[in-house]
Design brief:
Structural class: alpha+beta
Strand order of the largest sheet: 3-4-2-5-1-6
Radius of gyration: 15 Å
Oligomer: single chain
Number of domains: 1
Strand content: 25-35%
Largest sheet: 6 strands, antiparallel
Order of helices and strands: EHEHHEEHHHEHE
Number of strands: 6
Length: 172
């Protein structure tokens, strides 16, 4: 039996292989008026630890993108690349178990598979396992073509792979 839908939200998701383009996209999205709470970054523990190590080695010369990644926190979810770290935001709160403590520690594809297709969820888990960084941009509950175009265009300009737009049906 299907659980009742408690909310629907649309996200644009970009995949980044390098931190420089990630930071450029992040800064542009913030400049366009999005907030940190509307942008969720996800990366494997190894990517975050590399960023912290670079930051320690380079000191004040460390890049803004390294400092951005260093602020990610363990989410409780796991991927093939190990523990998943995430920033603060609605989606990241769900992954961290705030919405459902019984699902803490599960694989990203299992968690995301509750809201999107298993195939799409597996795609994101695979990208995390490859050491890539995911940038989730909350577009809102309804189609907002201006906001969606802005987010997708920004992500496409900087991402290492195509950008996906997903409709989440969060279930209780």
């Amino acid at each position: 039996m299907d659980m009742p839908i408690i909310g629907e939200t649309r996200f644009a998701v970009g995949v980044f292989a390098e931190t420089g383009p990630l930071y450029l996209a992040y800064r542009e999205l913030i400049a366009y008026g999005l907030t940190d709470g509307e942008i969720c970054l996800m990366a494997s523990r190894s990517v975050v630890k590399e960023s912290l190590a670079r930051q320690r080695l380079e000191g004040v010369r460390s890049s803004e993108s390294d400092r951005l990644l260093a602020g990610l926190q363990p989410s409780g979810a796991h991927s093939a690349g190990g523990s998943v770290y995430a920033s603060v935001g609605n989606l990241c709160d769900c992954l961290g178990g705030a919405a459902d403590p019984d699902h803490r520690g599960q694989w990203v594809s299992d968690l995301l598979g509750r809201w999107i297709s298993k195939r799409a969820a597996q795609y994101f888990e695979d990208r995390l396992g490859e050491g890539k960084i995911l940038v989730w941009v909350m577009l809102g509950r309804r189609v907002n073509s201006e906001r969606e175009n802005l987010a997708c265009t920004t992500l496409l300009q900087h991402a290492s792979e195509s950008v996906r737009v997903l409709d989440f049906a969060l279930r209780n």
